[in-house]
DNA-directed RNA polymerase subunit beta
Amino acid sequence: MPTDEKEKTTSRENSQQTETKDARPQQEETPDKATRQEQKKQQKREKRENKKPRRRIFPIWLRIIVVLLLSAIALASGLIVGYGVIGDGNPMEALEWETWQHIIDIVVKER
């Protein structure tokens, strides 16, 4: 019986040793991995150096102005269509201040 206990303890110790070996992460990098990383860094560096500077044909400030103008045109055309076609009024009256003053007075009229 004593030999069985020794075998059990040695087998337990062996299994614990293999578990601890497997549980340890590999801290050392392989030489292939290190060289691959250096090659990637070198390729990125070369790509950055060979890249042509980007020249914008349509500058950002001009894009903002164009978007604002297109928005104003869309608003005006929506007012004209809504007031003239849907509302059966004169389409050009939608752009007059008196028309909007009248609408504001109706909405916010004194009680």
Remarks:
- The mean pLDDT is 79.
- The CA atoms of residues 6 and 66 lie 87 Å apart.
- The two ends are 106 Å apart (CA to CA).
- Residues 60-107 form one domain.
